[in-house]
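Check this:
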Amino acid sequence: MKLHLQPRSPKHREEMFKLTATLLNGVAIACLVGASFGPWLNDALQWGWQSLALIAGAAISHLMAQTVLWLGFVRGA
């Protein structure tokens, strides 16, 4: 089964890009919450490499969202 997501109009295309960026920013927020509040809420989690990896994942997810928005919107249009 093939999944064809063809935008019907330029407005529909923009909405697809905005929803994708929103999803990626949601992942970034979840990573930040896990990195900052996880060690406080659960004693098994500790500040260290895991928190640093989650913060790096949040930054990468946010940069991916910004890239999706940059690719989805044409300047001057």
Q: What stands out?
A: The two ends are 35 Å apart (CA to CA). The chain has a mean pLDDT of 84.
